[in-house]
Amino acid sequence: MSNSVSGLKTVERAFEILELLKEKKEIGVAELAREMDIPKSTVHDYLRTLTSMGYAVNENGKYRLGFRLLEFGGQLKYRNRLFHIAKPELERIAEQTDEIVSVNVEDRGRFVILHAEHTSKSLQLGIYPGITIPIHTHAAGKVMLAGYDDGRVDEIIDQHGLTAVTEHTITDRDELEAELETIREQGYAVDWDQQVVGMGVVAAPVKVEDQVVGSIGIVTPTDHLRDEEYCAELASEVQKSANIVSVNYQYSP
């Protein structure tokens, strides 16, 4: 094996360890070695290096992610133009509705929450910047899919599939295509119980020169969306907000 290939494998394995630390929250060397099917001595070498660099922390023999990663995530968000443009609108809607409001992007075919605002009366779902979920399971993801051309949609579905997250998740390709067409016609999306049972979402796309750059979503209890009048109010509000963000994104200095 060439040195370059060996080096790339080393980097890949380091990130696999970070992914497992994220998934497990904390884990010991022996368990991590079993998960990765590599020697404990090798795992220990990786963890020692990651710890020395601040990406992992050793607490009584258990390892967890280090706060150094928070610096990267924080900078990524605060350097993002969409975050800064959307934040005032998210704050306004959250204060007005007492619902969770988020601005979202697509990354490598996955739905990513860039930022969320909420109040003490909002659902407490543990939503945080950077959380990543299957894009087809969430109205704020589907409004982005609806704005892509067929080739891009095919690429995302071929790569990630249509995995069920709840019993209500759309897993049929034709059914998803029909919903995307409805979203295109009405300009917004509504669904519930597809990503979390009891959670509903109303969302609209943020577009710049007809290109989707993200979405605005309002997260509310499912029962709220069964009230047609309230659902219509949220749909109107999220469309207005997405339009404001779209214009400001294009023209603000």
From TrEMBL:
Manganese as UniProt keyword: no
Pfam families xrefs: HTH_IclR, IclR_C
SMART domains associated with the record: HTH_ICLR (SM00346)
Annotated keywords: DNA-binding, Transcription, Transcription regulation
Xref: SUPFAM superfamilies: GAF domain-like (SSF55781), Winged helix' DNA-binding domain (SSF46785)
Start and end residues of each HTH iclR-type domain: 8-67
Domain IclR-ED residues, every copy: 68-251
Protein name, UniProt field: IclR family transcriptional regulator
